[in-house]
């Protein structure tokens, strides 16, 4: 598990309000630190769930079996 500062956690929480698309890289610390890539966008109108699934690698070049970390915004 990655350790983040309180400031980094605040910035990560703010990212859930952006309009991300699959394969976008999610960066923090003014673009100096990557937390991963958007692998899936969830927008379920039936349940109201809206989420972005972030993985530790770019799925364009990484196999799903190689993913070690998954985050949900």
Overall pLDDT: 81
The helix/strand series, from N terminus to C terminus, equals HEEEE
Q: What shape does the CA trace take?
A: globular
Strand-residue proportion? 35-45%
Uncertain segments are none
**Count of DSSP H/I helices:** 1
Q: What is the number of strand segments? A: 4
SSE class = mainly beta
User: What helical percentage do the residues reach?
Assistant: 10-25%
Radius of gyration: 12 Å
The first-to-last residue Cα distance is 16 Å
**Major sheet description:** 4 strands, antiparallel
Strand order of the largest sheet: 1-2-3-4
Give an overview of the whole structure.
The protein has 73 residues and is mostly beta strands. It has one helix spanning 6-14; strands at residues 25-28, 33-44, 49-55, 70-72. The protein contains one helix and four strands; from the N terminus they run H-E-E-E-E. The mean pLDDT is 81. 12% of the residues lie in helices and 36% in strands. The radius of gyration is 12 Å and the shape is globular. The chain starts with 5 loop residues before the first helix and ends with a strand.
Write the layout of secondary structure elements.
Elements (H helix, E strand, L loop, with lengths): L5 H9 L10 E4 L4 E12 L4 E7 L14 E3 L1
Antiparallel strand pairs: 1-2, 2-3, 3-4
Offer a quick outline of the entry.
With about 70 residues, the chain is mainly β. It is built from one helix and four strands, in the order αββββ. It is globular.
């Amino acid at each position: 598990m990655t350790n983040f500062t309180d400031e980094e956690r605040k910035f990560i929480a703010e990212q859930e309000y952006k309009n991300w698309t699959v394969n976008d890289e999610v960066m923090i610390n003014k673009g100096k630190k990557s937390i991963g890539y958007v692998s899936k966008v969830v927008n379920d109108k039936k349940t109201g769930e809206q989420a972005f699934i972030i993985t530790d690698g770019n799925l364009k070049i990484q196999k799903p079996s190689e993913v070690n970390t998954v985050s949900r915004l």
